[in-house]
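Researcher: Quick sanity check before group meeting.
Model: Go ahead. Protein one:
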Amino acid sequence: MSAGNQAGNTKRGTGKVFGPSQSGNANTTPQQHNPLSEYTQTQIVGDTTGASPTGDLLPQEWELIETDNDNIPEEEDILQRLDRIEKRLDAFENTSYTFLLYAKQLTDRTVSFFEDIFGLSGGDLAQIHDRLGINYNNKGDYPKAIEAFQKLVTQTPTAPAFYKLGVAYGNNSDSQEAIEAYRRAISLDEKHLRSYYKLADVYAKTENFGEAIRSLTQAVDIDADVSESHFRLGSVHNARGAYDQAITAFNRVLALDANYPGIYQSLGIAYEQKGEHNRAIEFFKKSI
């Protein structure tokens, strides 16, 4: 092989790349190493391995290794290997399931252990169940979230606690239970606006627009200067085809906050559905 061909090759076993100035000449001064350039290159290609920015870089693609034809495995050998892999995957799946069951039991036992040994107060236990419920809910495990929040409302029956329980019920498609939880939250705090909003959401999803409007009207009566209350009320009016009332509510939002997210687009949609195309275009342009 000529010196020119050797110049750009990767030296097998070292992971180092020799440029033209380094090939075959130990006395040649190598080019100055610039760590910043390597780090920039790493960021551009999206490397997320956590390797040192100044370390040797390797391509993300698989490198094909040449194999002698005599060493190619027979079809029967390949099938046997695949069978072994399948069995190992089955065993791994069973092990993972067992681990998850154990982790759930461990969580329950941990709470009970700390309660018995360290004498946790009701507030401490409530905080634990609150955190567990939030984590389960955000991970999509709504039944466990409901279980945790049920324990939370037992420890601290407050409006925020019942609100969280209502959210978990709603995510689990338990509409009636969600309604009851939100109503309980409102009974504990008549100014808990988030419960009015979520209560209206549940009713609107089942097209019970009358109850949804009633909930949002109560929210507006509590504080008429909250833009979100008017926006949600306008959205429900728009969904039920009451476009004039929707436009009235949206204009109230505009008067309170001209930069409220989505307000111009919502007004444009309401005018378009009402048949006033020129007014719709006017607001659609403002939304861009």
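Researcher: Fine. The other one?
Model: Protein two, sequence then structure:
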Amino acid sequence: MTRCCDTPEGAPCAHDTIPTVPMPGWEHREQLLQAAAELHTAITKFTESFMPMARALADSYAQFVRQLREAGYLDDQDQPVKPADRPAWQSPYGPPKRRR
């Protein structure tokens, strides 16, 4: 058995004692438990109602990405496909210098 501190075997550990002073909020413990249960119920209902919409959204996004890939706008790593050739005015360095 592992112990939490370096006290000799059989000696009482300071961490083994149960606090005798009531913790703040214990006088409202039942109300806090009721509020926590109501919050849990509300979050559960929200999650159950949200999940079908989230799944539908994920499915439509996957279909959109698949269509972009099939149309040739995305490569196999879902990165935008760079145009093979572009006019000089689209170059990030500007048009080429004229030779004399």
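Researcher: One line on it for the slide.
Model: The radius of gyration is 33 Å.
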